[in-house]
Fold this protein.
Amino acid sequence: RKEVEQDPGPFNVPEGATVAFNCTYSNSASQSFFWYRQDCRKEPKLLMSVYSSGNEDGRFTAQLNRASQYISLLIRDSKLSDSATYLCVVNPGAGTYKYIFGTGTRLKVLA
Amino acid sequence: GAVVSQHPSWVICKSGTSVKIECRSLDFQATTMFWYRQFPKQSLMLMATSNEGSKATYEQGVEKDKFLINHASLTLSTLTVTSAHPEDSSFYICSATRTGTGYETQYFGPGTRLLVL
């Protein structure tokens, strides 16, 4: 089982749609969680950290479910500019700053 | 915000050449930096953890004698791909950890595309 698993997609959605991605992780002791966005041939950019209480930033909402070991990202009112690959990232903790990356979920927002 | 730079952004070289890539944190000190490699349509794979003033920690399967890492200061880490071969062609990305935030966010450099002919 991979440490961090994501559906690679692609998710093709029309503009204005709401889309949700899930990501599961295998290490129950994992400490911190993030969603990064990566555009084609670019470096990953931090979209948001994922807190236990869940957090929202504009059209983006992230949730953490420790019991089921998954995190989610919800994008409302999709824009064309949201088209990218969304990377689920887990820090396993235990005194390390290492990140474990999922393979990413590709989103295409269509006009 | 936290800014990380990488240089060069593109390298094309002949097989057998050594290539040095620099990673700098521009507006913060980074005790820890990371080097990743990403092949087309694949996820980022951690190669090594670079710690200022000490030896790098390499991930399993990464040859430390081939990928030399030096973290001489709190704002600079370098990765040298020694005797590069075509299979080393990839997108190399560094990141730096900004500590003290509670979540140890990593900030990524823009990456270096290496093409070995």
About this structure: The mean pLDDT of chain A is 92. The CA atoms of residues 30 and 92 of chain A lie 4 Å apart. Chain A touches chain B at residues 32, 34, 41-46, 49, 87, 91, 96-104 (CB under 8 Å). The first strand of chain A starts at residue 4 and ends at 6.
